[in-house]
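Sharing in case it's useful to others searching the archive later.

Someone asked me privately for the predicted structure of SKI3 subunit of superkiller complex, so I'm posting the question and my answer publicly. Question first, with the sequence:
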Amino acid sequence: MVNFEMFIIMSNKEVKAALKSAREAIKNKEFKEALKHCKTVLKLEKNNYNAWVFIGLAASELEQPDQSQTAYKKAVELEPEQLLAWQGLANLYEKTDQWDFKVELPNIYQKLVELYASSDKKKCYEVIKKLSDIYQSDKEYSKLAEVWLQLVQLKEEEAVDKKELVQLLQQMTQLLSDCLNEEEQDNETQKHIITAFEKAMVLMDPVPGEEHKKVSADYIKCLSKMPLEENKMKVACQSMLSLYPNQSYPLEVLCSHYLKTGYLDEDAVSSFTKLLDLTPNNGLGHLGLGTKALQERRYQDAIKDLSQGLKKMSSTTGWYNLAEAQFKVHRYSNSATSCSQGNLIFIAVISEAEKDPVLLVLKGRAHLNKGQINQALKQRPDCGEFYFLLGQLYWDMGEETRKDRSKAHTHLLKAAKLDPHLGCVFRYLGHYYRDVANDYGRAQGCYKKAFQLDDDDAESGAASVDLSMRQEDMDTALSILQSVIEKATPGSAKWAWMRRGLYYLKTGEHQQAISDLQAALRADPEDWVCWECLGEAYLNRRSFTAALKAFGKAHQLQPCSIYSVYQAAAIKQTLGKFKEAVSEYLQITAQQDYVPALKGLGECQLSLAKTLMEDCRDGGAIDLIQQAIQNLFRAVQLRPDLSCLWKLLGDACTTVCIVSPNKARVLVPALLAGLDPNTEGHMLNQSQVLKAGERCYAHALKLMPEVPSLWYDLGINYYRQATKPPEGDQTSLSLLLEKAQQCLKKAVMMGSGNHSHWNALGVISMNKGLENYALAQHCLIKSIQVEPNNVVAWTNLGTLYLKKDNIELAHKAFKIAQSLEPLYVNCWIGQALIAENVGSYDTMDLFRHTTELSTHMEGVKGYAYWVCSTLLDKSNRDSELYRYNILQMNAISAAQVALSKYTERIQCDPDAFIMLGYLNEHLQLKRQALQAYQRAVELLQSTSSSEELAFSLGCYGRALCTSGQWEEAVQVYNSTPLQELSDLVGLALAYCRAGLFPESISAYERALAVASSEKEKAYILTALALLQNRQVHCAEPISESLLCLCAVGLVHGDATLASAALTELLKQGSASGNVVEQRCLLTCSLLALQGNFSAVQREASRAVHSNPGNASLWALLSRVVPQYYPRKANGGAVAGHVACLSSMTQGKRALLHSGVNQLASGRNSGEDRHKNALKTMQRAVLLCPDDPATWAGLMAACHTENTSCYLSGSAPRRQALEQILMSVVSEKGIERPLAQTLEGWVLQQAVTGLMLEGQLEQAEALCTQVLNVSPEHPTVMLSLRQVQCQRLLMANSGTVLPDTVLEQLNNAVMMNPTNLGAWHWLAEVYRNQGLLVQAVMAYRQSLQLASQLGVHSCQVASLLRLALLAFGPCMAGVPGNEWQDLVLEATTEVLKLDSSPVALLFQALLQYVTKMAARETRRLLERLVYVPSQEFPVTVVQVASWYLLRHLHAKNDQELMNVLLQHAKMNGDQRLLEFHSLLASSSS
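And my answer, the predicted structure tokens:
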């Protein structure tokens, strides 16, 4: 016994050990080893649960599913309530793809649900989800419902939220709703669905609510699919209606149910009515009422409601009922159609009624609808419907069967005899009598009969009306239309509305026509023909915008319709939208040669040409005239019988008379030019084109000789030819004028009531060559008598009186013309000529007014003459008249623009070119002035006017001097007689600038002999003194001499001489104009030479304040600010903007200065998108594209933008522009002294930009490329060394540059001794290498250079950089005082030059480093923090605030710290507040 107990104890230990070993083996994935241990266990304990579970798991992993299943099942038998085996079985069945396993898997899940229900709810829900998916995929809806109810029950036991239960129930209903679509429905599942819906609606809150409404609708939908739950469905619908009375869905379900059952009681009718009250267009409601009407034998109501319902929805039952109702009222054809729409559902009914003739007809109709003609013909009932169908069939078969009386006609007559109430028979009989027999009387009778039988027969009604109108029986037609329209509902009877609208359109009652056509379109909005008719009605009513929309809609519906496009183009032409009209005409002519479109296209192009001519844009006008001629000639070729086309062609040819003969060269077809038609087009000059116009008018007169306007046009053409005679042919002038006079006399004889004819005859009669003034006066007075409000005739009459020197009558005539039409420019020109004749002060004002009204050649030249005359008179500069006429009215610019147009058109007037050159000189347009004077010289060289030629040559020479062409100027001046002082002085200046000083001195001495006044002699002596570098004594001292003396002192750096000369100059009293600017410039230069840089800005500001209207002073202020006082750069930018607004001449250069100021102040697009340096420089480039400085400024602005992007962390947007802009600057002509400097700066800028982008290789390649062209260029060598140095430093951040490299860098800088930036760069290299002494020497060298050059900003920059360099060792605590002394020395020098916040900050920080706790430290820092100055940069204030906070924190001065923090809050310094928090936390 003891041995047995010992055995038991030993076996239990072995079992536990073996199980532990098996568990470890499974954990280590040694499944075979695990099986061995489990078998050991089973030998000792056959029914060990864990051993069987382990065997199942190991066998499963070894892919032995059957053995695994057996082991798990054995474990389940041993312990059915244990989870492990069931879980193992579930895992095994899930991963093994065997059908028997899949079958058993739901049972396993079900057992797991039972076991988890009491232990682990979460896993229970997961298993239920898996079980639900299986039942749903297998469509076992009953079991699916039980599982979901079990889940809901578990959730209820957990007392979860109502919302979660509602969601579960909704999911359950959605999953189970699919079972309702199955053919065999399970009653048990239906009950579960109902239970779920009822529970969900009980738990829902709020009621009523959107969620409750949705669930109620779903509940009703499910009930409607359950045939046995009719009562519940009705109750649910009523319940939902009580809660949601505006919802139509429950009513729709009820109505659908009633229609389906066919049982229509009072409740059903009430439901149909309520549904239509809620939704009037609901098809179910109409179908229900129609079906009820059919049951009550109200067939017409049934047809109406059923038809309306079937329009909204298709229903087999509805079509059936409609066909039955139509059948009952003998509308067999309509009934058959309804049968066809219902998919021939009557075939079965018809097949059972072989003896019913009507049904036999319907059956035959059904066969016809299916295309079974033979089967249809087998039906032979004695019925009118049958014979009608047979007659209709013969009619539709074609023309031959229609004309055969034994077929269509005979069968239709028989149908009419058998059924005289069948309206469609009479309609087809009407077709036969109208189209075949041509018996309109019988046709009319048949159509009327058909329409009487069926007033819905639109075809019969329309045919009857059309026949009545054809027979001009309008009363009958209107009565039919009126009767139809009175009965018509909105959106119906389109044919009646349209025909009545067309009738009203024909009779001119446009408003009524529009109303009727709009009503027709309500019935069919897609009828493009109706839209075209409506467009016609609008057009006749002159409602052009509405007509355009109507024709546009018609074209949209029917893109192939040319008519709608043509009408739209014609309307746009009428409205003056010629460009849009041209595009639409071209759209038509591209498709076909449509003559009206070609005519309209030519007219529009001619109108556009005239518009361009009014603005003197003659080149574009000639192109348009040429196109118009081509298009009109195409039209003439198609319709040579149309006089209007020939007339338009003549107008196009005659229009070229306005432009300059040089530009009036037109390519015309060979036939029109009177040449061989087989050849191509020919280029004709102005005279030849006018001659072609004469032939066109003659051809038009051959077609219509009695039209006076054509004689008028021909006469005008002859007159234009007379004013533009061929070169060398003056003999034909009188003959052409005589022909013009005869033609206009003919026009007057045929149309004496036309005032234009009389006016033209009067103008031609007083022309040179006829000069019949009496006849001219008679004709013009006659024109006025015919049309008293005739501004042209009054103006021409005034011109006649003016020509005869009758000033008083001329003034009266022009005055009357002005009162009739104040905008007519010719009468104002007449008044200006009178004022000029009598010497009135208003002359210039009158001429200016003419240029404002329009560009008229006579007015333009008169105004330009008076502007130039006023400018030449130097004595009136301070007069009120000059300030108003020239300055306030911007006369120079206005006259220059107008005269430019004049010379474009009239290119043979040397006086105009001389005046244009003079005006261009005043506007600083040097190249344009040069071209104008050159053209004047060319014109005068072919004339005999030597005096005028000499004057123009002098002007030409002066323009050449201004543009820097000194050698050419010398030649031109030498070609003059050299008798005038201006010519001699100009020659002397040209010699001087060309480097020919002896010749210049000689010329000045000749000029001195010619000079008449002492002042002139003083000027010449001053020039000689400058040339010979000697003092001269003038009898009459002049300001120019003092100006020159002061300038000489400034050039030689002699401040004493410059100051003395300037003092004497200022003693001469106040100045004006350019003298003020010169004095201000000299004063600023002297102050800069003396080193008083802040006074430079103050002096310029004082001058601007004294002369606020002087744009040159504003430009000067904008120019000096960035150079001498960059702290005021924002003000400098404003000054430049004011200069731009004040003067166009100064504004171009001032715009560049404004951009430089914005660059100096760092204004970029990140700060201001609209006012920044880049925008300003772009405008400057647009205004002055030939100025290299503007392109250089644009380059600097782009670099600023890129730098700003790098600082803000965003990607630069203006990359790869450096080399492009550099090449642009190099291409511009630069004066030699500045060329190398500017090119070097541009190269440095480009290299800097490339280095900023990290493109060092490209930068080095650029430098190398430039060196190949200019090997001795020091700036290029410096840039190359900078790039190479940067590459060496970037290759290894800790690189120590060899002494040889440093020596090369130093040599490169020494080659550019005046480059301050180079010294700064070298100092920075030394600092990076730790060579602080060498860096200090480099900064001192740059400081010395800046002082020598007098560049104030560079002096400050060098001193501040030196201070910053010395401040580093101070901060690092290097012993000794030499670095502290250097900081104090540099900052003190900066403060001597100007107030500098940065210098003050350095001094305060130095005090902080050396004596942190001292009171002086706080005082210096507070001076930077609390001083309310906008000029202090934000960075300086913030840095000072941080150090002040550290100082106060170290002293634990809480009161002052609170003051500082409050100040930071007021100024939004969030970083200081954060810094304070860090200090507070670190100290605690």
